[in-house]
Amino acid sequence: MKILKYIVIILVLSVVFLSVYIATGKSEYELNVTKQTELSNQRMFRYVDNLQNFSEWNPWNNNESAFKLDSIYKGTNAKVEWNGNDAFIKKSVQNDSLYLQLDIDGNEYDTKMYFTEVGGKTKVEWKIKGNLSFTEKFQLFFKGTPESMIAPVFEKGLNTIEYNIVESLKNFTIKSENLIVFNETYYIRQTVESNIESLGDKIFQSIEHMSNFAKNFELNAYGSPFTMFENINLLSGNVKYSVCLPIKNFFSTAEGSDIVCEKMPTFNGYKVVLTGDYIHSDKAWNEAKKQVLEKHLTQRADIKPISIYKTSILDTQKSNEWITEFIIPVNESFIPIVEEPVIVKDSLTSN
Fold first, then answer.
1. What is the pTM of this model?
2. Which residues contact 140 (CB under 8 A, 6 or more apart)?
3. How do residues 26-49 score in pLDDT, each as one tens digit?
C-alpha cells in the first residue's frame, strides 16, 4: 500500500511540476503563411477588406446567420462580431495591406496581410502574432510547434478566399434580350482609363467621386450609373471609357473640370444582360455585336454603346449577383423580318 501511495504522490507531483513548467513557458509566437494566386491583388484585397465576406472565408465559423456587422464593415475601423468573437480592421491601405485584429474563443491574434504583385501573380502574406493559451501550450508540449498547429488554420483561410473568388468568377450568364428605348438623359461624366482586370475598381471609384460631386453641388442624381466605352484595345487589354451619373437637370461645370455635364438623346438600342463579374464584359459586348449583325440591325455611329450598372459592387460584394446591361444604339425601332431567298431549281438539270 505504501508503494502505491508513493507512486500516486509522485504522479501528482509530476503533473503539478509539468503544469507549472508548461504554464511558465514562452507564450508569445510569430508566424507567417503565404499564398500565391493568379488573381489580381486588387481583387484579393477588395474581398478581404469588406467584412461582409468574412463569414464566407474565415476558418473558425461559417454560420453566416451568427455574424453581426458593425455600422462600418469595410476598410479602416470595420468590425464584425459572432458568438462572442470579433474581427476588427485596425488599418486598411488600398490594394496593399490590411491590419486585422482577431479575438477567437478567447485567443487574440494581431495580424497583418500584405498583397503584392510578383511576375503577374499575387502573393498574399499573412503575418500573425499571438499568445498561446495553456491548452495550446499543453498540446504543443507533446506535439509540434505553433507553425504546425496554428498556421494550417490561417492557410485554410487564404485557400478559401481564393476558392470563393474563383467560383464567383465562374458563375455568370449572358442573356440576349431585345430592342429597348433609352430615354433622353442629362448626366455628368468623367473619362477614365484602365485594364480590363481593374475595370470594376476604377469605375466605382469614379462613380463615388461623382456621387460626392453631385451632393456637394446639390444635383439630383437618379437612375443607374452607366459607362460609355471610347476605345477598347483587345491586344493590350486597356479600356478608355466615360463613367456617367444621370442627373435631373443640366448643370454647367467649370472650365477645365474633370467632370462635365452632357445630354444623351433618346435612342433605340439592342440590349444584352450580364449577370456576373465585370471581367466577362468583353463576352457580353461580343454577344451584343453578334446579335446586331444576326438580326440585320445597323449600329448608330453618332451614339456610343453604353453599359448600365443595375446591380453593382455598390450594392453587393458577391460578383455573381452583379447585373449589367450592355446596349448598342441602332437605327431601327423594330427587328426587321428578312425573308430567305427562294431557290428555284431547273427541272431539266436537276436529278
1. 0.75
2. 132, 146, 149
3. 567 888 999 999 998 888 998 999
